[in-house]
From TrEMBL:
The lineage of its organism: Bacteria, Bacillati, Bacillota, Bacilli, Bacillales. Keywords: Membrane, Transmembrane, Transmembrane helix. Signal peptide: none annotated. It comes from the Bacteria. This is Uncharacterized protein. The keyword Zinc-finger does not apply. The chain crosses the membrane at residues 5-22, 28-45, 52-72, 78-99, 173-197, 203-223, 246-265, 271-290, 311-329, 341-362, 369-387, 393-415, 427-449.
Length: 450
């Protein structure tokens, strides 16, 4: 039965897409009931951390709900307000699949085995490769890169090699999350603030370029003193075929970004919905153009079923978060929570710092940045009275992304910890300064955008 949950979940997601084109209160109510059923199914199957988060949101949401004027019969629609995010997560595997079908993932392996003389040069190359493929592969890119680097760096002293891997891969990974339209953190920030992706993108790219340059210079200086083993270099010059694949990947990324911005400006649809509707046809056409349609279908269908069958953590998080956020918005308790923000309303930069610190503190306790953004979403009305939408979108996105390399119990840090057999706290420690600089840059840029 568990292997066929994707059929039930897919039906709900398709119904949600239909309501985006044809708004109907009855269907919205039905979607709320179906969201509750998804929660009931997914809760026992979710990880312990997400069960705790979901329970906390439900309990807090219940106590907030009883202080509102909302009738019990009106609860179902409150549960389905985050279905757009779940639908986006369900279609993302198709983009991942065309990258794998086109064997672009093997391109990373070639890039990481290229002709370099020292670890400083390899550091910059590793960060670049991670940033490029993470935009399409997300966590899978980190797994591929770490496997290749661990193997390549065996002749290097283990402490140095481990430090290299946990820095290069996590930092490169975070740099891609800042501007990729496929990243959920950006989708939620835009969902909360209502800012156009095209307006946000230049700011995100500016921060990415700045952080990339700063980190690359640091990496070249810090790791430049370690020689890369000559025996591992061999004949690893990039072939014309590899260069062609790099050009194809860059073109696909630029085209997808352009399509998202263009369609978002022409049609009056939310950013999340535009990306959701664009992913599959874009991936299909891409696979067709490179002659990998059959592989795309085989890989994509299996990956879609696996992902949809196992999205219990996000179902628990987003459904309970929707109940909590809607209850908070309608509760008198919101006024009490708003008081600390109102006290510093004349000092927007203080609010920006408070938002960043909240993300850092929550990440240290294993709270996913998505959950933190969701909590802040309940205060979005007040925050938007003090900060403009663009500034708020910048600080929400950068604050969330800045905590990714230091989120002690985050997915990527956990995977790195398992691959290297290192304490997640050590990984957090090595990336702490980087994340602090990242967060500070985010605060500064958000202040500039005020």
């Amino acid at each position: 039965m568990r292997n066929y949950l994707y059929l039930f979940f897919s039906f709900i997601f398709l119904l949600h897409i239909f309501t985006e084109f044809y708004t109907n209160n009855i269907l919205i109510y039905i979607l709320g009931i179906l969201s509750f059923i998804m929660l009931i199914i997914s809760f026992p199957l979710a990880n312990r951390l997400f069960k705790i988060l979901g329970s906390a949101f439900l309990i807090a949401g219940f106590f907030l709900f009883i202080t509102t004027d909302i009738q019990t019969r009106d609860i179902p629609p409150l549960l389905g307000t985050n279905l757009s995010l779940l639908t986006l997560l369900a279609v993302l595997p198709w983009m991942n699949s065309v990258v794998r079908a086109g064997r672009f993932d093997t391109l990373m392996q070639k890039l990481l085995r290229g002709n370099v003389k020292d670890l400083g040069t390899l550091y910059q190359r590793s960060t670049t490769a991670m940033m490029s493929l993470t935009a399409f592969l997300n966590v899978s890119a980190a797994t591929i890169a770490q496997d290749v680097l661990v193997d390549n760096l065996k002749p290097i002293k283990k402490d140095v090699a481990d430090k290299f891997v946990m820095m290069a891969t996590l930092r490169g990974y975070s740099l891609a999350l800042l501007w990729s339209p496929l990243e959920v953190l950006i989708a939620i920030s835009i969902f909360i603030t209502g800012v156009q992706f095209g307006a946000l993108l230049p700011w995100m790219l500016s921060i990415t370029i700045f952080m990339y340059i700063v980190d690359s210079i640091w990496g070249r200086i810090y790791f430049g003193k370690y020689k890369y083993p000559a025996s591992r270099m061999g004949n690893n010059q990039l072939t014309n075929h590899s260069k062609k694949k790099i050009a194809q990947l860059a073109l696909a990324l630029i085209t997808f970004l352009a399509c998202v911005i263009l369609i978002g400006n022409i049609f009056d649809y939310e950013f999340i919905f535009v990306v959701t509707m664009l992913v599959f046809p874009f991936a299909f056409i891409w696979a067709l153009l490179i002659g990998r349609l059959k592989s795309f279908w085989v890989i994509g269908w299996d990956k879609f079923k696996h992902t949809t069958n196992n999205m219990h953590n996000f179902i628990v998080l987003f459904v309970t978060l929707a109940f909590f956020a809607n209850s908070l918005n309608a509760s008198p308790a919101q006024t009490i929570i708003q008081q600390p923000i109102l006290m510093v309303a004349d000092y927007p930069v203080v609010i920006l710092i408070m938002v960043q610190l909240l993300f850092v503190i929550m990440s240290m306790f294993g709270i996913h940045p998505i959950a933190t953004i969701g909590i802040l979403g309940g205060l979005s009305t007040l925050l938007l009275e003090i900060l403009n939408p663009l500034s708020l979108a910048i600080i929400l996105t950068t604050s969330g992304v800045a905590t990714v390399p230091i989120g002690t119990y985050g997915l990527v840090v956990t995977l790195t910890s398992m691959n290297l057999k290192k304490s997640p706290y050590k990984i957090t420690y090595y990336n702490l300064i980087y994340s602090a600089v990242f967060g500070a840059v985010g605060i500064f840029v958000a202040w500039l955008a005020l």
